[in-house]
Known about the structure:
By secondary structure, the protein is mainly beta.
Amino acid sequence: MRIAYVIAITPALAWPIGTILADEEVSWKERACLRMPEPNDVGGVKFSVDGKQILAFGHAAIVIWNVEEAKELHRINTRDMGSVMGSLTSDGKKVFLVDYGKFFAFYDLKSKQEEKRRQLNDDKIYDHYHVVALSPHEKMIAVGGETHTATLLDAKTLKEIGKLEGHFPVCKLAFTPDNKSLVTIPLPNVHVGKAPRSEEGNIIVWDIAKRERRLTLELHTAKYMVDSFTISSDSKLLATASGGEEAIRIWDLTTGKETDRFYLNSRHPNSGTQVAGLSFSPDSKLLAVAGTFPHQLVLIDMKTSHFVCKFEELFDKRSHGPRIGSVAFSPDGKLLAVGCSDKTVRLFEIKRRMDEKENKEKEK
Length: 364
């Protein structure tokens, strides 16, 4: 396992905008700045499957834009619903809405009506805390919570089709892009259910077809909550970030072994550094990391474990610029979306010299 220190940049050490910092040259430029309606700080950003639309959710609204024209297409008022998150279905016609602890539903963008709404707190199997995920092929919904069980539902009928039992209370979960596994991340310092204390804090990867545990990722940091995580598009890598530990860990989802570890702030290990967002590029060569303290956005080369780009322009010299809530690469890897606390979604064009060389060789 490699351990790399990705040093947080202080104003005195800041590189000029767009400077190349490592082996694989990367450049960027801002393509568009999309604005959310008041009073919405951006809590999350997600591209559609075809990359033509982008969705952002805030405190009181979900907004969808056309990426090419930077034009608003749809707006869903969620002020009366609670803290609602959303993601577009693969056909771009519906939004999967989730309010943890309350409900999930599909929202038809044409009729502007909810479909298949399920109240979570009305069902004893979900207990009091709930996390929900829709599978990439949109055939299953996973629901986890304070109990030792994650429940699988049929996305069409909402009937239960399976249970995954024997782990700690779940605070986060996600399907792998190949639809074969479910990753569950535990709540820290909470012991409920059948899982032994020796596994407290461990991340579990479940085989969905067999309804059984496939891997156990030994995190050994039960007192720290995993603030952010992301899975590579080939379902081979998992990146996790724990604010209290101030580390980003890279896991091999084939073996369950930790392969890399990055520290955002090696000079001040108790500085309170937190990671708000992580996103792999589609080819898994780059990892976008958004930090809330200190405020920063960087790209890390997964091969060399080095900085390849720092987005210095987002912040003023005192590091009091907008807080970044989330990051997401477009399906083709050419755009990076950044959701900020100043109610904006910024789209950056990402260019790599190696990609340009390969394109020129193909043209010849």
